[in-house]
Design brief:
heterodimer, A: mainly alpha, 9 helices, 0% strand, globular, B: alpha+beta, five-stranded antiparallel β-sheet, 6 helices, 10 strands
Chain lengths: 209, 260
């Protein structure tokens, strides 16, 4: 921990460069709010007709009942979709995705996973993502696209029939939607944990440096 | 006492809780009651009042109205709901309502008449034998419940648009509003474009048998382009109208358009 704190001081003593540009920060936190609203209201909807032999605790659901959960879900979806679409377009057009997330090589991922598990993964330069970060961030973008597409399939299975066909049928789209949610929740746990372990990365996502 | 707030102003909270409990699966229902069905369960952000509930409700209702407009905009009157082979039919097809099957309307065919009201040329009531004489078609489509589950069923009856033509309905009107015999008075509005959709059907048979009590005898409206709760059962009257008259679930907060 002490070495982390020192690094923090060293970094802040220098004229710091921008790690996370404003658009990334704004869209990141907008997405964070939208995701939490979608997950908690989604759990409420799930509970109305559980796919598996469990329900989510009522305390962690949004909306009070199915109707309330649906209102939240179909309101927050606009925030999620518009913000997500803007993020994808800006990320691709600005070259940020290509610059920060690529390439992702299996050997690089293996190396950095091993380093991370033995606490030897360096975080000196936050502007360069390590391979674990690249894999997780690129992966969660794919999951994000999938959860929106499967969600749209469930919302409009007749009007967006071709989208449903992509998943096979309506019930399958529902399972895909659920497992994407599970993947996002798993990502969220790891993501928050790692951000807390490397606080300067959290700071960069808040003030940019 | 903490400040309590309600999801939908004007809706009796006790009834709402009762209805909510009823739509829960048995196990959850028991757990919900055991856990104390307090009004706190109705606050929008359970456990904390981060968001002022009444203003959040207003925003959510506004967005829901916006979603009605979006769905109306993307509704393609020619897009057909997928149809399935008989082998795909879900057996048994689930009974689903806000009451038990024992409390479902038990309608005597001889006493029943379909009332026709509103913007139509011919307001005569229709007996069941009269309706049975109309040309019928069969569809095997997927019924999708607002709760998320779905089931494939076989429905036979008269396309609603043929009937609307027959009675000289003003199809420029905005809604066809159905009233049903369910206890507590079920009703639901159907937008005219959906009412005129080729697959929207006045259903008299399920799986080639006279519609059983569980599925809405003597008549249900099968709308494969809407969620299940917009498929009224035990229909007693239809009204062609320009007024939005609300509906049983719509008034409690389910999205009114609820298209598929």
């Amino acid at each position: 921990m002490s070495s982390l704190a020192m690094t923090d001081e060293q970094i802040s003593a220098k004229p710091a460069k921008v790690i996370q540009p404003t658009w990334v920060r704004v869209m990141h936190w907008t997405n964070a709010v939208a995701m939490v609203l979608m997950i908690l209201s989604g759990w409420q909807i799930y509970n109305a007709s559980p796919l598996f032999g469990f329900s989510f605790p009522r305390e962690y659901t949004l909306g009070g009942w199915l109707g309330g959960g649906l209102l939240w879900h179909f309101a927050a979806m606009w925030l999620l979709m518009i913000n997500g679409l803007a993020y994808l377009i800006t990320g691709i057009a600005s070259g940020r995705f290509a610059r920060k997330l690529l390439p992702i090589t299996p050997s690089g991922v293996l190396h950095d996973v091993r380093a991370a598990l033995t606490f030897k993964l360096g975080h000196d330069d936050l502007t360069v993502y390590n391979y674990v970060q690249r894999l997780l961030y690129a992966g969660i973008i794919v999951v994000g696209v999938l959860i929106v597409l499967s969600g749209l399939s469930m919302w409009k299975p007749v009007q967006l029939y071709y989208l449903v066909m992509l998943f096979g049928d309506y019930p399958t789209a529902r399972y895909v939607h659920f497992f994407c949610m599970a993947a996002i929740c798993a990502f969220l746990v790891i993501h928050v944990l790692l951000a807390l372990l490397v606080p300067k990365s959290l700071r960069a996502m808040i003030i940019g440096r | 006492m903490a400040k309590r707030s309600f999801l939908i102003p004007g809706v009796d909270k006790r009834l709402l809780i009762k209805d909510s409990i009823k739509v829960m699966p048995d196990l959850t229902r028991r757990r919900f009651i055991a856990g104390g069905a307090s009004l706190g369960a109705l606050t929008l952000l359970t456990g904390c009042d981060v968001i002022d509930s009444s203003s959040a409700e207003e925003v959510l209702k506004t967005v829901s109205k916006f979603n009605d407009a979006v769905q109306d905009f993307i509704f393609n009157p020619d897009a057909l709901a997928p149809t399935f082979p008989e082998s795909a039919i879900t057996k048994p097809f689930p009974f689903n309502a806000y009451y038990d099957l024992d409390d479902a309307p038990d309608i005597a065919a001889d006493d029943w008449k379909l009332e026709v009201r509103g913007l139509v040329d011919n307001k005569k009531s229709w007996t069941l034998p009269e309706l049975y004489k109309l040309p019928q078609v069969t569809q095997i489509t997927r019924h999708i419940c607002v709760e998320g589950w779905s089931a494939i069923g076989s429905w036979t009856g008269t396309p609603l648009r043929d009937f609307l033509k027959l009675i000289g309905a003003d199809t420029r009107a905005k809604y066809v509003w159905f009233q049903c015999a369910d206890k507590d008075g079920y009703n639901s509005p159907l937008d005219m474009r959906t009412a005129l959709h080729p697959q929207t059907q006045m259903t008299f048979k399920y799986a080639n048998e006279i519609l059983p009590r569980a599925y809405g005898f003597p008549m249900k409206i099968r709308v494969p382009t809407k969620l299940g709760f917009k498929n009224p059962k035990y229909v007693v009257s239809m009204e062609v109208t320009n007024d939005y008259k609300g509906g049983y679930w719509e008034d409690q907060g389910y999205n009114s358009y609820s298209g598929s």
